[in-house]
Amino acid sequence: MFNRRRLLALGAITGGAMVLPFTKLPALADDPAIPRGRQDLIPRRARAGTRAAVTPFSVRMPIPPVAQPMMSAGGLDLYTIPIKPANADILPGVRTPVLTFGGSFIGPTIRARTGRAAKVVFVNQLDMAANVHLHGGHVAAADDGHPMDVIDPGRMRAYNYPNSQQGATLWYHDHSHHMEAEHVYRGLHGMYVIDDPAERHLRLPEGDYDVPILLRNAQFDDAGALVFGSPFDRATILANGRPQPYFPVAARKYRFRLLSVASEYTFRLGLGGVEMKQIGSDGGLLPAPLPLTELVLGTAQRADIVIDFSRFAIGTQIVMTDATSGTPVLRFDVTSRASDNSRVPNTLRPLPPMPAATVERDVRLSFDFFSGAPVGLVNGLAYDPNRSDFTVKRGSTEIWNVSNGDSAFGIPHTFHMHLVQFRVLARNGGAPLPQDAGLKDTIELPPNSTARVQATFTDYLGRYAYHCHYLEHSTLGMMAQMEIVP
């Protein structure tokens, strides 16, 4: 059974609209454990004074630890990772209480391999229920981290990941309903990389030159503790858990795996006009490199980029800036030279063919502000774990028309589908955006926007979620589920 914990206050609605109390979701009306709170949903600028005072580029960006399997045998790697509280070094000179996978903020990177299975045993050492969703993973329903399928305190759960999909940058995070937003915000997130032997011939940068970077925003109080309040007061941007760090690089090519673990934010990343080449998206490599001077990276999205530092002299400093906040994120310091036999070929990995779609559906994300409480809705309904919203035949190909139903309030959403990757066919009736390239599992839906996506549902049966990945929104019910049937 789902052991629902208290839902903490989530801020107050602002923007000159209204103040609405939070009450229990209709599907959970009999649950006395959820207190009243308030939710800041209307976008606005962060209040002055909420950015942590740090000296820019005074701390080196750490690289997350790589999880080591306890055992590797018979085509399987076995990992054990505790879910536990810890105190982390985020702001200089301050220890910040966080929730962690494995004791580190951020969690360890799991490096899997296409065709080789992984079993990850998560041991819950918190005083509250939690669970784990492999975001972007093609896994059986029992291993997907269903929002109601939690690990109670003191218990453990083994998740089986077959890694049957092509190479990709995925991530894992808590998905326990009503607590997913706070748990991820407080640290329950980590990267999961699937390395693919079929891509080795491309000679992309690897080893020490293949670097994960997890980006997010945060708010801190005067004591350095994380404040779980309004998403619009999270004015301190972190790269691998540090504010405005520097990272020394050699004068050669690097592959950076960028992941946004911010729960409600869109980065617009640039290098002051320096070109970067995007080579991968949520579901793996693009068909061809995409030259960019600005990368748009929404909540839960991934982008693999290559930056070639060989054109710069030793001592050059290159700053990655976020145009959304107008602040520096990270500084690359060219400090040495190194040999480099890597490359970025003109052809990477062709996308799989798209079968003809046999079903077309509409999905609308919105809030109900007028029934006494802000409640998240998908197609007019709040999440009910006992209801299947779509029945999908295994092996079928479908087109989903996804729309933002909150344009009048200026509220953006994101859309995430579990189980499968999809292709973006159109935006607002026209061509997809540059950030839609490749295989996706998460897309942004700004106000007044629609997206047309196509997916093929293979292999697995059972119930899988689809939802807004602004986790404060899914916490309030903006989630539904599909049943995959024979």
UniProtKB/TrEMBL annotation:
Instruction: Please tell me whether the keyword Hydrolase is annotated for this protein.
Output: no
Is Disulfide bond one of the keywords UniProt gives this record?
no
Which PROSITE patterns does this chain map to? MULTICOPPER_OXIDASE2 (PS00080), TAT (PS51318)
InterPro entries attached to this UniProt entry? Cu-oxidase-like_N, Cu-oxidase_C, Cu-oxidase_fam, Cu_oxidase_Cu_BS, Cupredoxin, TAT_signal
Q: Which GO terms describe its molecular function?
A: copper ion binding; oxidoreductase activity
Sorted alphabetically, the keyword list is: Metal-binding, Oxidoreductase, Signal
Q: Residue ranges of the Plastocyanin-like domain?
A: 86-198, 371-484
Catalytic reaction list:
4 Cu(+) + O2 + 4 H(+) = 4 Cu(2+) + 2 H2O
Q: Signal peptide: which range, if any?
A: 1-29
E.C. number = 1.16.3.4
Q: What does the similarity note say?
A: Belongs to the multicopper oxidase family.
This protein's assembly is summarised as:
Monomer.
Record's protein name: Multicopper oxidase CueO
